[in-house]
Design goal:
Elements lengths: L1 E6 L2 E4 L4 E9 L6 E7 L6 E6 L5 E3 L7 E6 L4 E6 L8 E8 L2 H5 L5 E2 L3 E6 L1
Parallel strand pairs: 2-11
Antiparallel strand pairs: 1-3, 3-8, 4-5, 4-9, 5-6, 7-8, 9-10, 9-11
Length: 122
Amino acid sequence: QVQLVESGGGLVQAGASLRLSCAASGSIFSINAMGWYRQPPGQQRELVAIITSGGRTKYADSVKGRFTISRDNAKNTVYLQMNSLKPDDTANYYCAADRYTDALRLGRSQYWGQGTQVTVSS
């Protein structure tokens, strides 16, 4: 089993920055890909960004150039640096992890965190 704990959400104004963190514990040897999803109010969960253990990344078009995903393998932690935040970025952000990158990309990750709320006011 793997446990994921997110932190760093909050309420900010448009144009501000936030950094989310997700710390993994447990059977972390089974993890290759880690990433972030988000679920805006009343909408479906959507992929934000993925990073593999080797550092390869993938981003949703809506966040390219504004968000950066990074990973500290020594700390078993993945980060999401969010700059130039917009009201449309308001959502509950979830950390996800899986052995397989495709599972994460398709939203079928084995492990999920509880989520952290990000609210961007205009």
